[in-house]
Write a structure and sequence with these properties.
three-stranded antiparallel β-sheet, single chain, binds fructose -6-phosphate, about 250 residues, alpha/beta
Length: about 250
């Protein structure tokens, strides 16, 4: 695991965008696993900026998103499909036919989960997976619990996740209670993983991710078992980790 310490969110975003750019340049037909939420927004902005400068080409890229709320249509402005259009897809030359996300309106959720799992398998897996980190150490919407599901599944969101995500909705009641998420297997089989985390609210989860016992009670801790993970985080998010692992600018553990 390589850990990069950024002084703030802007530096974190630039560093993460750097790694993703390298992937796109070295393998223009990469399959990128993408995340929503507030953490990757700056990274997407930076990628758009470099695209506008002519430094990046998304024309051969395939995107598979981690998760989608159940019950939200793609044109609902709270859906993750909408988020991706707003924050990345509509600003670059990615082919919309190559952008995939679970169907929040699927009538048969079980069939939708199988479809999405098979889709990722059919693409040959993920070259680079971008992850945010839940305050409860979830990745995707793989929530802490006794066991983790390996394939795409429908998950009942934890109260802590609903609370954390209510900042994007008019009220907590409006946050969907269920979401589709990519399972832990597709994430862990990604050939490269980039996790971004910023702010003090992520310090405990990031400590569990990097230094904690490997446990389904802290899904991000599984990343310790992956051999090509970049954690890009700001000083506030790394504050607890740094009590155990001194980090100048970067460190490989
Ligand atoms: C989003 C996702 C979630 C978020 C996490 C952190 O696609 O999979 O795991 O990455 O909840 O969200 P933010 O970045 O909003 O703090």
């Amino acid at each position: 695991m390589r850990i990069y310490k950024a002084k703030d969110e802007a530096e974190m975003s630039r560093k993460a965008a750097n790694i993703i750019s390298a992937q796109i340049i070295l393998k223009p037909d990469s399959v990128l696993g993408l995340a929503t939420g507030s953490s990757p927004i700056g990274t997407y902005k930076q990628l758009i900026d470099w695209y506008n400068k002519g430094d990046l080409d998304f024309s051969q890229i395939t995107a598979v998103n981690l998760d989608e709320y159940q019950g939200l249509a793609p044109d609902n402005d709270q859906s993750y499909a909408y988020f991706m259009k707003e924050h990345l897809f509509s600003h670059v030359n990615i082919n919309p036919a190559n952008c995939f996300i679970e169907d929040g309106l699927a009538e048969d959720p079980g069939a939708e989960c199988i479809r999405y799992t098979e889709l990722i398998r059919g693409l040959g897996g993920i070259d680079l997976q971008l992850l945010g980190l839940g305050p409860n150490a979830h990745i995707g919407f793989n929530e802490p619990g006794e066991a983790l599901e390996k394939d795409t599944h429908l998950v009942k969101l934890k109260e802590t996740t609903i609370k954390a995500n209510s900042r994007f909705f008019a009220s907590e009641d409006e946050v969907p209670k269920y979401a589709f998420t990519m399972g832990i297997k597709a994430i862990m089989q990604a050939r490269c993983i980039v996790l971004v985390a910023n702010g003090e609210a992520k310090a405990e989860a990031l400590y569990k991710c990097i230094c904690g016992t490997i446990s389904s009670e802290a899904p991000a801790s599984l990343l310790q078992l992956h051999n090509n993970v970049f954690v890009v985080a700001d000083e506030a998010a790394l504050s607890l980790v740094e009590k155990e692992i001194p980090i100048d600018k970067e460190v490989t553990i």
